[in-house]
Design goal:
The structure is a homodimer of 362-residue chains. Chain A has 362 residues and is an alpha/beta fold. Chain A is built from 12 helices and 12 strands.
């Protein structure tokens, strides 16, 4: 079976030996504090980790709030920002777990079309004029699931709308550092006009998912509020994980691993794009320059469930693309949305999987 | 200043060197899987840790669900069990953070008087006859904040009521193993008549708070539900922390540390009881045989805030006892409730603190 399914880093993307070596050094020097409760009282995270994350992002430590993974950050943010009856606008498609979190907190989640160069900001402008949301949630870089990156002018227009209509923008940037070619746009936080952007980040894709280190970059007042909320839910993230994350950043391991990932992934991305174009035609949703995902709008004769069953019968496991569309929004008529993660596959395997899919629509 | 405040283990109660040694062995043998995502799909915890916790409690691994600390377990349980308008009965006084969690999930939290030998089960019987709760929350062993342990007949009556009226009992047992004298009663889970008891445990007080390992022991169906819920909030607890916890249990470190804690704490408890009786008279709420807390109903001339300020002026820091009383319930008239944690103090320091308090009521 060829698996075009979960978006997790392949084994070779995690610098296990180097993390282990630094973990041993953390144990040598900091063991006394790691197995005790951290000091509480609106605890926003290990001071070393907050300082290192701030340096990594060119901001101040007091703007960093550390969580048990970035999903937990979204959960706490939703708890803080969503009130009964609130609307939240998201990209359609978007990260399904985020939608579930916002809905669990009582939000009405509305999908805004995603184009090849990012959120349809003109459509968003009409929506916010009619109903100001609790927040807009976006993954502006190498989006999950689509692989789309938001272009510069849309970024500027989004933060302008946020300032005009006074809503929060949550930018979730787990893949931002994973740019294999081209030049990065400014982040939404860098363009922020009115302290409206809250950034959610993670060490899962640039260092290690097992450390379970997510974080929020926000106004210090919001950091303090989130810290109070977190203390009432789980007291604190693991001191050991945080110390390991801090050490890996301080020693440059995250930075060198990102460089390694660029070398590892660039040929995979390039080969994957070629394989799709050659075997499926010009149906890519976008031509990503990084991240984990290629996506296509695949013309199919039957429905999605039938296609996925047919694909499995020829040895290809796919994720149900419709699951990424909130609130009844849909891919273009006559097509299904397929996410094709390329990060964990050698070019030959990826091409073979695409070949099998091609055989189904021939 | 003498601090009768936080209930955290003293440094000498955490076997830091031994945990560090076992952590190094975990890194030697399991590093490959520790820094990756654990397998998901209703992930209830690391299989080794579930098996070791099950053995520790004499139950089956499929009944174990691992969380980021036991507060997170209470949060997920409340999310599962509480529906709008539900009542939850708790001991008065009880653990304040638990009350906050239940209220955040929409429960109306009602305090039931706590006696020297546990929850007033007769009062509870009247309450449940009038209004069946979503659940009853109890800390039956060396309760936080009171130090009270529920006696056998009350335990039997509580599980009988749960079976008759078909409500869940959450027994939170962080201190249960910390018995320094006397004989343990059966746990509520052991007495359970009708699969109504859910146990919440933690490695924080028997091994290390920094590992942030809490757990639930429950019916496998509930474990699966909680796992699905947790996956949508934080994906999984730290694989490394879980592997360390599993290794410490497998190597007998938790068990030997509990034995060490008994030797460490027994004289502290005994001296603390003596100090209170000699200097404050017969005002102990209970004569605990374990745990962290002595408590008193202290007769005061003024109100609690005045007394706490007076205490601080003579060098004693206290926790506000009224904060442990939910829903307007109160300690006996003319008294304030004082929690006096003895676990982190040498007998001389504890006695000196009690002496300063005695000087205020002389």
């Amino acid at each position: 079976m060829i698996h075009f399914s979960r978006g997790i880093p392949p084994r070779e993307a995690i610098p296990t030996e180097a993390i282990t070596r630094l973990t041993r050094r953390v144990l040598d020097t900091e063991a006394d504090r790691l197995f005790q409760y951290p000091p509480i009282g609106k605890y926003a995270g290990d001071p070393d980790l907050r300082r290192e994350l701030a340096a990594f992002h060119g901001t101040e430590a007091e703007r960093i709030f550390v969580t048990n993974g970035s999903l937990q950050a979204l959960d706490l943010l939703a708890g803080h920002l969503v009130h009964p009856g609130d609307v939240v606008y998201v990209e359609a498609p978007t990260y399904d777990r985020a939608v579930q979190i916002f809905e669990r907190h009582g939000a009405k989640v509305v999908g805004v079309p995603l184009e090849h160069d990012g959120l349809d900001v003109a459509a968003l402008a009409q929506l916010v004029a009619a109903h100001v949301p609790a927040f807009v949630y976006t993954i502006p870089d190498f989006q999950n699931p689509s692989g789309v990156t938001m272009n510069d002018s849309k970024r500027r227009e989004l933060v302008r709308l946020a300032a005009e209509y006074e809503f929060t923008v949550i930018e979730d940037i787990p893949y931002r550092e994973l740019r294999y070619t081209g030049t990065a746009s400014a982040s939404l936080a860098e363009l922020d006009l009115d302290n409206r952007v809250v950034t959610v980040g993670s060490l899962s894709k640039v260092l290690s998912p097992g450390l379970r280190i997510g974080y929020v970059i926000a106004d210090p007042a919001l950091v303090t509020d989130l810290a109070g909320q977190a203390e009432g839910v789980y007291l604190s993230p693991s001191p050991l994980s945080q110390a390991i994350g801090a050490r890996c950043l301080a020693e440059g391991l995250v930075q060198s691993n990102v460089a390694d990932l660029r070398r590892l992934m660039a040929p995979r991305l390039s080969a994957a794009v070629d394989a799709v174009r050659e075997q499926l035609g010009e149906i890519l949703v976008a031509a990503p320059e990084g991240g984990y995902y290629l996506t296509v709008h695949l013309p199919v004769a039957n429905d999605e469930a039938t296609f996925l069953a047919d694909a499995r019968a020829v040895g290809v496991v796919l994720t149900r693309g419709s699951a990424f569309y909130p609130d009844g929004s849909m891919p273009p008529q006559g097509t299904i949305f397929l996410r094709l993660p390329f990060q964990a596959m050698e070019p030959e395997e990826f091409a073979a999987g695409i070949g099998r899919l091609a055989s189904l629509i021939a």
